[in-house]
Amino acid sequence: MLISPILVDYFGNFIRVGLLMPALLRDKQATLASWRTEWKYALIVGGISPISYVLVLYAMQSAPLSHVAPAREVSMLFAALIGGHLLGEGARLPRICGALCIGAGVFALGNF
User: Fold this and answer.
1) Is the pLDDT of residue 17 over 80?
2) Mind giving me the DSSP string for 43-110?
3) Cα angle at 110 between 107 and 112, to 5 degrees?
4) pLDDT tier at 15 (50, 70, 90 boundaries)?
5) DSSP conformation class of 27
6) Distance from C-alpha of 73 to C-alpha of 69, rounded to nearest angstrom
7) Residue range 101-110: mean pLDDT, rounded
8) What pLDDT, in 10s, does the model give residues 73-95?
9) Exposed e or buried b for every residue in 99-108, given b needs 16+ CB within 10 A?
10) Is 77 exposed, middle or buried (0-12, 13-18, 19+ CB in 10 A)?
11) Which of 28, 75, 103, 105 has a CA-to-CA distance to 18 between 20 and 30 Å?
């Protein structure tokens, strides 16, 4: 029996809220201060993250898992770019090598 990916994500949110609530209640002042300064980023991540998760779940329903799972790791390419270039983190050469390996793996799995 297949369950809708939207329902999986929806009910997963209840679990996440339950697990995060103790940390929120432990230090309300720090949480509120963080919300005041980071609310824009929270809205962006809160909107994009569930969409990407549901899209991956839908892709796993319609395509072979051996194609979907590695393609999902393409997000690591963006993390390498953002961390290395925009955030000024070091070790660019290993990041580029790792990103090339991920891209090669996704290409190989898609063509074989």
Assistant:
1) yes
2) HHHHHHHHHHHHHHHHHHHHS-HHHHHHHHTTHHHHHHHIIIIIS--S-HHHHHHHHHHHHHHHHHHH
3) 105
4) very high
5) T
6) 7
7) 78
8) 777 777 777 777 777 777 778 87
9) beebeeebee
10) middle
11) 75
The number of C-alpha atoms within 13 Å of 94 and in the hemisphere containing its C-beta is 4
- Percent of residues, the chain, with pLDDT higher than 90: 10
76 or 13, which is more confident?
13
Q: Which backbone phi and psi does 39 adopt, to 5 degrees?
A: -65, -35
Instruction: Mark residue 91 as left, alpha or beta (left: phi above 0; alpha: psi -120 to 50; beta: remaining).
Output: left
d(C-alpha 52, C-alpha 45), whole Å: 10
Could you tell me the pTM of the whole model? Answer: 0.53
